Amino acid sequence: MRYRKVYGQSKVATCMFCSKQATTQNEQEIPVCIAHKNSELNAFKCACGDYLDLMHGKYGPFFKCERCGLINMKKALELNEIKDLSEQAETVEKTTNDTSSESQDKPKKVNLFGEEDPENAEEIVLPGDPMYFD
């Protein structure tokens, strides 16, 4: 059985940096999301070692190698690591580093009344507590 084609469902471009739906193009005319509009791709290398030239065609961006010929975007992305060179990526890294340093700190001890316990406070174990037999 053959299904009817639906307008706009046959090709959905995705952002190569975050895999969200691409809604715009960057300066290199690569489909990206709004968050990566100012980002650029670094130089890609082919499997043979030559640099790839970014080209644009009817079906989207692709790469051209002097030795190997035409290479599609998916294969070029498999061969190379994507690095986001935008300023936004730097700010995101800074914020993640700030939050990770906070999570490494010791959690504050809070008693039942919501007050912070002093760090030098001793634990009192009564005979009725489960900790009594340990």
Q: What does this protein structure show overall?
A:
By secondary structure, the protein is of the alpha+beta class. Among the domains are: 9-40, no CATH class; 41-82, no CATH class. It is 19% helix and 14% strand. It has helices at 73-79, 87-104; strands spanning 24-25, 31-32, 53-57, 60-65, 69-72. The strands form two sheets. A three-stranded antiparallel β-sheet has the order 3-4-5. It has a two-stranded antiparallel ribbon with strand order 1-2. A hairpin with a 2-residue loop joins strand 3 and strand 4 (60-65). The longest helix is centred in the last third of the chain and has 18 residues, at 87-104.
Strand content: 5-15%
Number of strands: 5
Mean pLDDT: 76
Low-confidence runs: none
Q: Which overall shape is indicated by the principal axes computed on the Cα atoms?
A: elongated
Structural class: alpha+beta
Fraction of residues in H or I helices: 10-25%
Strands of the widest sheet, in order across it, are 3-4-5
Largest sheet data? 3 strands, antiparallel
Order of helices and strands: EEEEEHH
Q: Termini separation (Å)?
A: 69 Å
Q: How big is the Rg?
A: 27 Å
List strands and helices in order, with pairings.
Layout: E1 24-25, E2 31-32, E3 53-57, E4 60-65, E5 69-72, H1 73-79, H2 87-104
Antiparallel strand pairs: 1-2, 3-4, 4-5
